[in-house]
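Field: COMPLEX_INPUT
Field: COMPONENT_COUNT = two
Field: RESIDUE_TOTAL = 229
Field: MODE = joint
Values follow.
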Amino acid sequence: QVQLVESGGGVVQPGRSQRLSCAASGFTFSSHTMHWVRQAPGKGLEWVAVISYDGSNEYYADSVKGRFTISRDNSKNTVYLQMNSLRAEDTAVYYCARDFGDNVGFDYWGQGTLVTVSS
Amino acid sequence: KFVLTQPHSVSESPGKTVTISCTRSSGSIGSHYVQWYQQRPGSAPTTVIYEDFRRPSGVPDRFSGSIDSSSNSASLTISGLKTEDEADYFCQSYDSSDQVFGGGTKVTVL
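Field: COMPLEX_OUTPUT
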């Protein structure tokens, strides 16, 4: 069965960096576009970034462009989110999600990892 | 960039039917697929409708999706409401490289 397991969350100070990982299993990882989606406490879902199946294309939400970088290692079935210059408003649960097409929408979600940006 | 607008909340009794709307602010609702996600309290989202009206395996046929070009909106209908349907529901669509979510609708089963 499809599994997506995020890790790397925690408490980080404003201005610092954090890297999230999402380990995938149960499907052919190298065939799927992958996303990061976040949810601030008590708020709705916000799309963060997407990377194509082969890593050749990446797109970002305006709110994180220039600060966050999505990447993947198909040999390790893992997608990453490097977050730099973190701000308080980046505090959220970060979900990894699999795309069912080519940057269309999400069919499987991980359980999420909480990132808290606070001094 | 477009916006997807959902009602903040809806409520209904068990066994009844609720319909949640999702209105696209610009661009045609039919030009890009709409998906719907259910999020129960304390849990990750799960997909209940994809490609406007398709149900993933395991999702009961009480859940249905549709598109209305005249109102430029999508709808999620839940019939035969059960207490387990109480959750937040989010619509989602896309445009070129951007993904957009609606603000979410809280469904309360009275």
